[in-house]
Amino acid sequence: MESATESPATQPLSLPEELILMLLNEQIGYFHQVPGWALNCAVVGAVLAELSLLSRIDTDMESLVLIDRTGTGNPALDPILGHIADEPVQRNVQYWIERLVPHADAVIDLTLNRLVDLKILEYHDGEFWTLAPVTWHTDARGISVEDTADEFIKTRITKVLFFDAIPDPRDIIIICLVDTCDVFRFIFDMDDETEGRIKSICKMDLIGRSIGEAVAHNLAGPLLRRSTLAKQVPRVSLRRLLLNPHVRDGNIPALLADLATEYGPVFEIRPPLAKPMTILAGPRANHWAHRHGRRYLRARDYFSDFEKVYGASGVLPSLDGADHFRLRKAMAPAYSRKRLEGQLDQVYRHARKFMAQWTVGASLPARSTCRRMINAQISPLSVSVDSQDLFDDMMSYKERALVTHIIRALPKFMLSTPGMKRRASAVDKLLERVQSVHTTAQRSGCPRNLADDLLSLHASDPQLVPESNLRFALSAALIASVYLGDAFSFAVYAMASQPALHERIRGEADALFGNADPSGEAFSPSAINVTQRFLLECLRMYPIVPVSMRDVMNSCAVEGYELPVGARILIAQTASHYMDDVFPSPFVFDIDRYSPPRNEHQGPGYAPYGLGTHMCLGLRWMELQLAVNVLMVAHYFTLEVSPGNYRLRFSPLPSMKPDRKLKFRIVEKRRELPA
User: Fold this and answer.
1) What SS3 state is found at 74?
2) pLDDT tens across 44-75, in order?
3) Distance separating alpha carbons of residues 138 and 144, to the nearest angstrom
4) What is the DSSP letter of 239?
């Protein structure tokens, strides 16, 4: 372990950083139940208090005065200081909190990033943070202590609140700000005596008192919390919708990008005989959904009927809040890139076995071939059984269930036809196979897989993962073959239709596979630079899941439009993939978008894996497996699109995929496949 003098966490923490750590709730991976406006006011108050302690400003109950405009070197503090320095008129603290609240999100982002850099917090995909297990920290007297930073700060506050320790000014300010957020009751067991002591402490320091009262005053201003809610959500005419050219080619992201350009980031579609749907589209709407959606939107409502088809309730896609984060965190290792890296030998073996059936001159149906090739790898990797004979039935049943219960484009009886009942039995057959090979004796010495993790979690926590959910969870792992397989089919199409790119990818493939099978570490950004940028562009132009569905659980405003409780929301996170101001010439396949200085994917406009808390858990796994398969195809074969004049069209329901007419012709077998 690093010594205290070497560790970055020995650097003193600012008040915004300490406030964030006090408010962090590890059970949900985010902050305690603090309303967005209250959190933003408290964060701005912490910045002002820190600037006061650094002698940049002076505050009292009546005014805020600039003392020194010299920057602090802290990117979270200096923009706020700049705004104060540029104000020609002297203002009070309440004014500045009100004025600076729009900058709070940036302060929170910078603060969270710094705490991750200091190895105090760990970041998890989906906008979750937890405390690093152990870190070095230096207390206010310069004494090094070994503890989590959160426990160090909470220990200080605990001593002040419960053991009558004398608080220093920083403690008083933190106590004032946490008290205004009304979350002490979630952090500690409170009684009347403790609450009285908190009130007394908040009066001890003039800075803490002035900022605390200013924050509290702003919390009481409902007009500031709910502003500009009178804007009418534009409604898209059915005629305008149906006449859009992308309706005919099935390109949902491009269609929604066109509508957002014409109607704005929030608009409404009213399909015939269906519930009205509000669409959020564009990078700013993406940013809102990514950072704030967890407070206002939930997945449970739209997903509940679908999970019931499998006899399940409370599976990962339908959970929200603490249970969702808890299950997501428990299952993260099963979907990690590290897990796949440890089993790449199996990926190579199963991919080669599948491609051994390919013969020169043959034309292969793109969609089914790519889905089956991916399933041939994922099934043994995830659940230790071969499911090729069940795959078509499971896929057909799942897609019919999605169209019936999620998209609601078919009546419910269409899921109960004799054919669908027969296909549904494939799920039970899969479950029987998995359970038959996942005994203690048979799994001894085997690499851990997804089924092991699910069954272990069911045994240890049957409320979180009940037996009734295993049918869905285990089959869903193989249904992932559909999504990854469709992404693979788009990638093979893009490679086969662009010979120059095909040649560059082949060069990287031959370098990796030329001598021996590469390890996971060999797939570094430098080794697959072209392939990686190529796949980023494939996921931009051909996103598999272009939209996300949610229901409003707490009324809110997005871009000035009110979203009422109960409204069905469609987050069109990939509409921005086809917006010219985000991706110039969006219909041009251009892998240079992802190189400096352009880096067009770095921002909320690029979202092929979803947004926020329900972002794809297996995205790192998917990135590696997709790259491995594209590179292996390029290493062993030369393909071309068939027929030669084929024009790509999409089949958009229930997810994006190429239409059935797309085929690949095997032009050349470049080398023999190892047995």
Assistant:
1) coil
2) 999 999 999 999 999 877 889 999 999 999 99
3) 4
4) H
Closest among 328, 494, 309 to 397, alpha carbons compared: 309
* DSSP strand pairing (568-572 vs 277-281): parallel
Nearest of 148, 156, 210, 166 to residue 188 by alpha carbon: 156
Task: Domain 253-669: state its class.
Answer: mainly alpha
- For the chain, the 3-state helix, strand and coil shares in percent, each to the nearest 5, are 55, 10, 35
| CA distances from residue 501 to 508, 544, 587, 600 in whole angstroms, order as listed | 11, 22, 17, 20
Separation between Cα atoms, residue 570 and residue 552, nearest integer Å: 11
Phi then psi for 321, rounded to 5 degrees? Answer: 70, -145
Given a cut of 50, whether residue 143 has pLDDT beyond it is no
Measured CA to CA, the distance from residue 624 to residue 381 in angstroms comes to 14
pLDDT above 70 for 153? yes
97 near 41, Cβ under 8 Å?
Answer: yes
* Cβ atoms < 10 Å from Cβ of 523: 21
In the chain, CATH 1.10.3630.10 sits at 8-225
Torsion of CA 457, 462, 468, 472, to 10 degrees: -30
What per-residue confidence (pLDDT) applies to 149? 54
Distances from the Cα of 51 to the Cα of 87, 89, 449, angstroms: 16, 19, 51
Report the b/e string of 3-14 with b at 16+ CB within 10 A.
eeeebebbeebb
> Taking a C-beta distance cutoff of 8 angstroms, is the pair 478, 378 a contact?
yes
User: Do 68 and 56 meet the contact criterion of CB atoms below 8 Å apart?
Assistant: yes
- Dihedral pair phi/psi, residue 131, rounded to 5°: -75, 140
Cα distances (angstroms) measured from residue 197 to each of 159, 162, 307: 12, 9, 49
Q: How many C-beta atoms lie closer than 10 Å to residue 443's C-beta?
A: 16
Q: What are phi and psi of 87, to 5 degrees?
A: -80, 120
One-letter amino acid of 62: E
Q: Which residue, 227, 293, 222, 231, is CA-closest to 267?
A: 231
Decide if 387 contacts 379 (C-beta within 8 A).
Answer: yes
Q: How many Cα neighbours within 13 Å face the side chain of 522?
A: 16
DSSP state of 235: B
Cis peptide before 654 (omega within 30 of 0): yes
Strand partners, 551: 298, 568
- pLDDT tens across 249-306, in order? 999 999 999 999 999 999 999 887 778 899 999 999 999 999 899 989 999 999 999 9
Helix axes 470-496, 529-541, angle to 10 degrees: 110
The predicted-structure confidence for 508-532, as pLDDT tens digits, reads as follows 999 999 989 999 999 999 999 999 9
658 beta partners: 650
Which of 3.40.50.2000, 1.10.3630.10, 3.40.350.10, 3.40.50.880 is the CATH number of 8-225? 1.10.3630.10
Provide the angle, in degrees to the nearest 10, between the axes of the packed helices 619-636 and 529-541: 110
